[in-house]
């Protein structure tokens, strides 16, 4: 079953924490995950908090024992060849595990020795990675004096010390400001020999998932869909048409009175209501979002029809599907209020339509 041409493989991976829930009830953190990650790929594991991302990578790194299912890293079984798996993987934890009182050099050197690098090679390798992390000049200063971005780069360096074939990064940019987040990704993408190491990145940031060759979306312990970000978005088909007007309720009526547009659209009001009578926007409200194929082609016609009806349009945008739309399409929920996609739209996080979520395609 194991195919060593894959960097990571998992079949039916399950993890149940026997007494993790309130009142000591079992928590099914991971409920049957199948994965195939190609060698050299940047693979994104996208999901909201509590979806099961950390638990999955803990099993893939042989740090947690699966309740059921099997997984391999370059053909090494996480259950029966844990030592081999640990040699093949590097791991960046969600919270910093650097020793604040030690210098950057000491942090890396201790780690290198723990991984069995000889003294001489450890010194060479540490110097090289401090250089790569862009912290060589501050290498003799305690880590507590470092910025968040520097710490992250140093942790990436530490994860790479023993030449792992797969580097697992659990929410690598959480807590960083947007500039430091972008820098961290630039750093990851420009690592020498980048394609010789597979990157397996968990994230709940939609823009971060866009950096990945392929992603799997996980929700409530199950993978709901996987593929390249472009393919997943294209499969949704519908763009978002967002309008802010002085009579948002009229938008629905007008849109539905254009027969071809009525065919093409599925609509959502400010609170997810699909009934126009219930979708009157509050004063200063967020507007109306219509999901429609080829939104930009409809925009002029809809605006003209609204003008004819005496409705003033303050703002109108057509946006191609985002990964948040992909998440919504498959789960009926938005991944996060503060995601880049939601803030770019300036709109609310959309609730599922009252008739339930659309059927996954
Ligand atoms: N050691 C544990 N004991 C009991 N329950 C746990 C344990 N670790 C995680 N869980 C539970 O398992 C579920 C999945 O958690 P996990 O940390 O894997 O999710 P996540 O997607 O990584 O979320 P986050 O990004 O918030 O860490 C959650 O309900 C969590 O409370």
Task: Explain what you see.
The protein is α/β, with parallel strands linked by helices and 361 residues long. It has two domains: 6-227, Rossmann fold (3-Layer(aba) Sandwich); 234-345, 2-Layer Sandwich (Alpha-Beta Plaits), CATH 3.30.70. The chain contains 13 helices and 14 strands. The strands form three sheets. It has a six-stranded mixed β-sheet, sandwiched between helices. It has a four-stranded antiparallel β-sheet with strand order 2-1-4-5, with helices on one face. The protein has a four-stranded antiparallel β-sheet with strand order 12-13-11-14. Helix 6 (178-189) links the parallel strand 7 (166-170) and strand 8. The longest helix has 14 residues, at 119-132. The radius of gyration is 24 Å and the shape is elongated. Residues 267-284 and 337-361 have low confidence and may be disordered. Residues 17, 20, 27, 29, 47, 49-55, 171 line the site of adenosine-5'-triphosphate. This is ATP-binding cassette domain-containing protein. Residues 267-286 are annotated as: Disordered. InterPro entries: AAA+_ATPase (IPR003593), ABC_transporter-like_ATP-bd (IPR003439), ABC_transporter-like_CS (IPR017871), ABC_transporter_ATP-binding (IPR050763), P-loop_NTPase (IPR027417). Belongs to the ABC transporter superfamily.
């Amino acid at each position: 079953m194991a195919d060593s041409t894959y960097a990571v493989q998992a079949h039916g991976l399950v993890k149940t924490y026997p007494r993790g829930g309130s009142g000591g009830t079992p928590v099914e953190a991971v409920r049957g995950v199948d994965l195939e990650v190609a060698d050299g790929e940047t693979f994104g594991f996208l999901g909201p908090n509590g979806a099961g991302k950390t638990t999955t990578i803990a099993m893939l790194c042989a740090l947690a024992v699966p309740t059921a299912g099997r997984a391999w890293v370059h053909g090494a079984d996480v259950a029966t060849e844990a030592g081999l798996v640990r040699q093949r993987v590097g791991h960046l934890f969600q919270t910093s595990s650097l020793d604040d009182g030690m210098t950057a050099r000491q942090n890396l050197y201790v780690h290198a020795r723990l991984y069995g690098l000889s003294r001489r090679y450890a010194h060479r390798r540490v110097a090289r990675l401090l250089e790569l992390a862009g912290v060589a000049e501050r290498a003799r200063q305690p880590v507590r004096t470092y910025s968040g971005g520097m710490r992250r780069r140093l942790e990436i360096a530490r994860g790479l010390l023993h030449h792992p074939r797969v580097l697992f990064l659990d929410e690598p940019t959480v807590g960083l400001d947007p500039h430091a987040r972008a820098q961290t990704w630039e750093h990851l993408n420009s690592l020498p020999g980048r394609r010789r190491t597979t990157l397996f990145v968990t994230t709940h940031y939609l823009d971060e998932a866009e950096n990945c060759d392929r992603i799997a979306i996980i929700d409530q312990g199950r993978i709901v869909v996987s593929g390249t970000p472009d393919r997943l978005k294209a499969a949704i088909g519908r763009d978002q048409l967002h309008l802010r007007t002085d009579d948002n309720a009229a938008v629905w009526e007008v849109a539905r009175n254009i027969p071809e547009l009525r065919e093409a659209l599925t609509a959502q009001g400010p609170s997810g209501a699909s009934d126009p009578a219930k979708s009157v926007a509050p004063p200063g409200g967020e507007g109306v979002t219509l999901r429609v194929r080829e939104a930009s082609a409809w925009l002029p016609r809809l605006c003209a029809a609204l003008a004819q009806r005496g409705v003033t349009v303050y703002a109108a945008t057509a946006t191609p599907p985002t990964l948040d739309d992909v998440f919504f399409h498959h789960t009926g929920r938005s991944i996060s209020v503060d995601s880049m996609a939601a803030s770019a739209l300036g709109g609310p996080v959309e609730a599922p339509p009252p008739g339930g979520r659309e059927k996954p395609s």
